[in-house]
Amino acid sequence: MEKKINVGLIGLGTVGSGVFKTLKDFEFIEVKKAAVRDITKKRNIEGLDASILTDNPYEIVNSPDIDIVAELIGGVEPAFDLIAAALKNGKHVVTANKELLAKRGYELFKIAGECNKVILYEAAIAGGIPLIMPLKTILAGNKIDRIDAIVNGTTNYILTRMDVEGASYQDVLKDAQKLGYAEANPESDVEGFDAAYKIATLATITFKKRIKIEKIYREGITKIRTKDMKVANDLGYKIKLIASGKIYENGRADVRVHPMLVPKKSTLAHIDYVTNAVSLTGHPVGSITLSGPGAGEFPTASSVVGDILAISAELGTSDYILPMMRCHHGTDADMVDISETQNKYYLSINANNNIGVIGKIGTICAENNISLASIVQKCVSDDNTADITVITEIANEKAMQNAVKLLEKSGYKVNSLIRVQV
């Protein structure tokens, strides 16, 4: 390649540092500028020339010398304005920003189209796992109608340790924070926001309809108990935070994030600690699972650099580069509300060990058209209460929630309600 490709990095944190270090292996690419918050901060980056640092990211997006901008700061603002300015100034963009894509991606792709530029975002969904490029190229001939994914390493790490060690959620969370797997404020991860951002973009690409983030049902892992983990194991399941999507023949889409009892025979049941995995089902491919590191300096840098190289290879070859990688979803999906969905359920109930307790549970479920697959009573305590585990057949969500209310009105304590993957 005769001409060097000039790249501007917005952000030189964990991912940005990994991108900088990786790009040094490519002689035809030069990091021309890198925007940081503090240009005086010492950085563990060998060969970093301090003269390329700036604390003004607009120097990058407005520079006529830069061909590709990599936005690696996260969040909606100022990232949206910076990417929009870069596109309008004739630059292609690579981003790892899942929140921005989920909340305002449509606007950015519209600007990119108007400016005849591309936005690539392989790193925004599953870190180092190649996913977006395969979906848009090798798998483009498939009609994918189902996604089941573990896309948040923090929650998967917490749930794995709760399962393997019998530790409590709070204890494992503290360890995860010490190890750097969880933020000081872990809400985005443990309440499912991060996974929701990712499944919004993934389902949009896969189903070719725009999935609005505000229409995604979201539930985190904070209510999962160690006892639930043990019972799930005994029943042949593992508990995982699953980001899922289905599109039906009528075009309606069911996209959500919540804990699930996953059968042990499933591949996702064996995705542990910080590993991510995405299972896709469709025709003609059938079912495939892609797994690997979902975060970290070099895994995420791998995807960012891959996108930079994909753009670099196309520059100067056409006036309309990478047509398959551009936005091709112009209409909103008709979303199924969680109350309309059909699921199997796991319930953990605590009740006084009186005659007719099991029968009353069965009656309440029957009155709500819920059939029981199994019901087991264990552990009568000193206070004469018993733990009762229920697994239902497929039932309506609204009916299940109503049954829970009736159980609680009848004096039962419903400790856990978790959906079961089918």
Number of domains: 3
Which CATH architecture of the largest domain is right? 2-Layer Sandwich
Fraction of residues in β-strands: 25-35%
**Mean model confidence by pLDDT:** 95
- Helicity level, as a percent range? 25-40%
Low-confidence regions: none
CATH C-level name of the largest domain: Alpha Beta
Number of helix segments?
14
Structural shape: elongated
- Determine the CATH topology of the largest domain: Dihydrodipicolinate Reductase, domain 2
Category from helices, strands and their pairing:
alpha/beta
CATH homologous superfamily of the largest domain, by name? Dihydrodipicolinate Reductase, domain 2
* Largest sheet, strands/sense/barrel: 12 strands, mixed
Number of distinct beta strands: 18
Gyration radius from CA atoms, angstroms: 24 Å
Distance between the termini: 51 Å
Features:
6-stranded parallel beta sheet; Rossmann fold; Dihydrodipicolinate Reductase, domain 2; elongated; Alpha-Beta Plaits; alpha/beta; 18 strands; 3 domains; 12-stranded mixed beta sheet; 422 residues
Please explain how this structure is put together:
With 422 residues, this protein is an alpha/beta fold. It has 3 domains: 5-127 and 297-325, NAD(P)-binding Rossmann-like Domain (Rossmann fold, 3-Layer(aba) Sandwich); 132-292, Dihydrodipicolinate Reductase, domain 2 (2-Layer Sandwich); 338-420, Alpha-Beta Plaits (2-Layer Sandwich). It contains 14 helices and 18 strands. Strands 7, 8, 9, 10, 11, 12, 13, 14, 15, 16, 17 and 18 form a 12-stranded mixed sheet that branches. A 6-stranded parallel sheet has the order 3-2-1-4-5-6, sandwiched between helices. Helix 1 (14-23) crosses helix 12. The longest helix has 18 residues, at 98-115. The protein is elongated.
